[in-house]
Every structure is written in structure tokens, then in C-alpha cells.
Amino acid sequence: MSGRLDGRNVLVSGAARGIGAAIARLFAAEGARVAVTDIRDREGQALVAGITSTGGRAFYRRLDVSSREAWDEARQETENRYGPVDVLVSNAFTMSQPALADLTEPDWTASLQVNLTGAFHGIRSVLPGMRQLGRGSIVAISATNGNETALPANAAYQSAKAALSSLVRHVAVTYGHDGVRANAVHPGGIRTSMLTEEDILPMAEAMATSFPVPRLGEPDDIARAALFLAGDEAAYITGTSLVVDGGASVGTTPPPQEHVS
Ligand SMILES: NC(=O)c1ccc[n+]([C@@H]2O[C@H](COP(=O)([O-])OP(=O)(O)OC[C@H]3O[C@@H](n4cnc5c(N)ncnc54)[C@H](O)[C@@H]3O)[C@@H](O)[C@H]2O)c1
Description:
By secondary structure, the protein is an alpha/beta fold. 43% of the residues lie in helices and 15% in strands.
């Protein structure tokens, strides 16, 4: 590793597993001090044990992103241990499956509370410190679903992800002069519990054969994109959305053996 985040203090939400865990591991390997936060305490603690056993710096803190107080406490603990937060990765999410016709108001509200308001609380919590510091990088893990694409399901999730990417652009425009950059990553289909727990992995893998890059994404594909946006290599990049989906949202094409000549 090349120390691309040497000396940076990073807070990652939803970091106990999946994409958030890959981000925490990669960022720590690149020299960052990482606050691993989640509501899955055991998995979060195990992740931190793995990171520190290989010389990385990280601690685990329970953080339910739907609570403003929990965000402020987690940010405060990060500051106490490491110093001001340089990088926020807003990654936690919850899935609610219903399409619009079947979506109840409580379902809608619960989804937005985590997927959108959770990021709002996180950004609001770190912004004053970043502005005071004169630098900061916010990376929101959004999705192609709701932005580049739409599906006939997950109406609340998709709406939240579209609003999240919009919020990122708002932050970029409003706080750029204070040295704060904000960007989004838009993953496509990534091999995490989102696909494995729903038992749709075989279908997703079959679909992925028609992507321009003909495979499902891996959590590390997203972690590398987040690393780029978080660090100084992206110093002139703000308010953007980096699509990481193997080209799936651009177009699909049958695997070569099915081409008609
Ligand atoms: N996997 C995919 O195909 C895919 C595609 C597009 C976008 N994404 C995005 O990537 C991000 C990570 O997803 P993943 O696939 O790694 O899922 P995951 O379920 O493996 O990880 C999500 C994490 O968020 C945590 N979480 C849930 N509710 C929380 C809350 N209220 N407070 C704090 N933490 C909470 C979970 O405990 C879990 O550890 C999400 O923002 C998701 O929308 C994933």
C-alpha cells in the first residue's frame, strides 16, 4: 500500500460488513485512522480486530445513523481518539422492497430515515469541524438504482438514493470555498448480503454476463473508487457521481457466443 490516506481520520457508517467493511480495510491499509461504525456490534468488532492485527488503526463504535445524537457522539469519540474527522464515508443503508403501490407510509418513512436522513445527520455532524479545518472529503455511497437506472421495486430506496446524490452536489456547491469536497459513488450490482441474503445471486450473476465488464462487482471495486474520491488524487473533483457498475447502466450486450454474425 502507498499511504494515500496517511494521517487522515476517517469515519465510515455501516462498516461492519460488505462495502463499508471493504472501505474500512482499504482505508486503514492506506494509512488512515478509521472509526468503524454500525449497528452490528459483533461484526464491527471482529473487523476492527482484523485491521489492528495487521498494524492498521481502527476502533469500533455503535452508530445507528438514524439518530442525530448517535452521530454526534461517534464523531466526538473519533475526534477524542484521533483528532478532527477529515473524511466521512456515508455508507449505511437499509432495504425496503415494496414498489410504490404496495409501499406503506411507515415503510417509506423508515427507509428515508436511514438512507437519506442518516446521511444528512452524518454530513451535518462533520461539516463544522471540516469547515474549521479548511479541508474535508465526504463520500456518499449512493447507487445506480434511483440515479442512472430504475427498477419496478424498492421505491423508497431508489428515491432516497436519488436525493442523496443531490444532497452531495448541494454540499459541494455550498461548502467548496471552505475546502470541503463531496462526491458520490454509484455502485451497480455488488456481491454483498444485498444480493446473497435476498437469494438472487444466481440471477444477478447470470445478468452480469451481459455487462460490458461481464461480472458482478466486488466490495473492493467500490472501496477503490471511494479511496480515490476521499484522497488528494481527487483534489479537483467535487459534486460528482462516480458510477461503478461494470458499464451496466450504459448498456448490456449478450455474451460473445450469443452474438448473431
Ligand atoms: N451491494 C450492492 O449491490 C449495492 C448496489 C448499489 C448500492 N449499494 C450501496 O452500498 C452501500 C453498502 O451496501 P452493502 O451492499 O455493503 O450492504 P450490507 O448490508 O452488506 O452493509 C450495510 C451495512 O449497513 C448497516 N446498517 C443498516 N442499518 C443501519 C443503521 N440504521 N445504522 C447504521 N448502520 C446500519 C448494516 O448493519 C450493514 O453492516 C449501501 O449504501 C447500498 O445502498 C450496494
